[in-house]
Specification:
Blueprint lengths: L11 H13 L2 H13 L2 E3 H8 L6 H5 L9 E2 L24 E2 L2 H12 L12
Parallel strand pairs: 1-2, 1-3
Length: 126
């Protein structure tokens, strides 16, 4: 099947976005967003703010440009990333119904995922 502008390749948005995702996501959020992307799991702006130690209202700005990798951070009421078009969202965004709503839960999951010894993982800034 040939691809055209009306029917772009499914990964085309991800490819063009992925090059700039790391540059636009604030360093305080990059590990969190990479974890969510790797696990294909959504988390609320509130949970991400708790882990990053930033105000909830700042999370959207700190995520940078709207693109697939950042779309894992969602509004707690709607389960949607705020202001994202269908093309900005990760194609797997709805594969899991679960949404991480608590910063402590997000930290536990990140520690389990990245460290053989959870007590060694330090995620919150001192």
């Amino acid at each position: 099947m040939q691809q055209n502008e009306a029917n772009p390749a499914p990964d085309s948005a991800l490819i063009s976005c992925s090059k700039r995702e790391r540059e636009t996501v604030d360093p305080s959020l990059i590990r969190i967003v990479e974890f969510l992307d790797r696990e294909k799991t959504r988390a609320t702006y509130e949970a991400v703010a708790e882990v990053a130690g930033v105000p909830t209202r700042s999370v959207g700005r700190l995520l940078g440009d709207r693109c697939a990798m950042a779309s894992w951070v969602v509004n707690g009421n709607t389960g949607e990333p705020t202001g994202y078009s269908r093309l900005d969202k990760h194609p797997a965004l709805y594969e899991k119904s679960e949404i991480i709503r608590d910063g402590d839960d997000l930290i536990r999951r990140m520690r389990r995922s990245s460290s053989p010894n959870p007590s060694e993982a330090k995620l919150r800034p001192s």
